[in-house]
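Continuing the series of single-chain predictions for the mutant panel. This is the parent chain; the variants come on the following pages.
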Amino acid sequence: MEEKQTLTEQWLERSAYDLSAAASLLKSGHFLYVAFLCQQASEKMLKGMWCALRKDSPPYSHNLSTLALSLDLSLSEIQFSLLDRLNSYYIVGRYPSFKQKLASEIDKKAASFLLQQTEEFLQWCRKYIKM
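Parent structure:
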């Protein structure tokens, strides 16, 4: 069991790191990567929750909605909407040809709002993890 707690802690640490990096990128004007790192921070949080709640390694899925549904979380409509929106930014790392289209859809205001929503979501998630 100690190994699973360590795995949980590792996921949560990575999530916090990505969120911190997103905040730094917001200040430097890299708005598309703010969104990408918000997706990454959320994915890592959900995987940390998986380890904590299921006492098992998380699935290899990158789909935030699928991960959240698999955990039987009581998400609000706003939270589901956030996860669906963040899912679209995972594409940044996988399919560079979509970068320009996605970049044109996110400005400082949108990136700031996305970061704020992600911070609130991650804080909400932490209440499920008892370590």
